[in-house]
Amino acid sequence: MKKMSDELSENIVNYLQRLLPLFSSLLLLFFSYVPLDFLLFNNIRPAVAMVCVYFWMIHRPDLFNLVSVYLLGVVDDVISNVPFGTNILTLLVLYVLISNLSRFLNGKPFIITWYGFAIISLVVFLTKWLVLSVYYGQFLPLSIVSFSFMVTAAAYPFISLILAFVQNNLIAVEEL
């Protein structure tokens, strides 16, 4: 017979494991904004929040829901240099796209999910570009968007490797 304290500690551990996708995403997001001494890397960063939302929505949508996407977008808006709400909107667009397309990407080889990320993130980057162009009242240069897209698509394997480590080693598999 289990003690009450054993059940409580088991519930706390289970709850913390359920929050690991959000916590790991926030941690990676904070690390992505650490200033580096390279001029180029201080201005163009991979969209870590976008990679995190895509990864968790494909692999563990039961642990990464709309609230997690919204919180990640709020934090990204607070620490980035874009008008407030831009990252929230783009991550919500990504959430809707992944919610509708995840059945085609779930369980596929890595290269297919990477290509899927590239296609979907291009749509999301163009949405963000359009929102910012409307906000500033002029079309912004597409060169910055295209370079950000390429950096993000190239960084996807490395970021997803970290997230896969979290998923495989720190999150317990629920028994059916």
Please tell me about this protein's structure.
- With 176 residues, this protein is mainly alpha-helical.
- Helices cover 77% and strands 0% of the residues.
- It has helices at residues 4-32, 39-43, 48-59, 66-79, 86-105, 110-136, 142-170.
- Helix 1 crosses helix 4 (66-79), helix 3 runs parallel beside helix 5 and helix 4 (66-79) packs across helix 5.
- The longest helix has 29 residues, at 4-32.
- The radius of gyration is 18 Å and the shape is globular.
- The mean pLDDT is 91.
Short description:
The chain is mainly alpha-helical and 176 residues long.
> What radius of gyration results from the CA coordinates?
18 Å
The proportion of residues in beta strands is under 5%
Largest sheet: none
Helix and strand content put the structural class at mainly alpha
Number of strands: 0
Low-confidence stretches: none
- Helices, by number, come to 7
- Morphology call: globular
End-to-end Cα distance, whole Å, is 23 Å
Helix content: over 70%
Residue-averaged pLDDT, rounded? 91
**What pattern of helices and strands is seen along the backbone?**
HHHHHHH
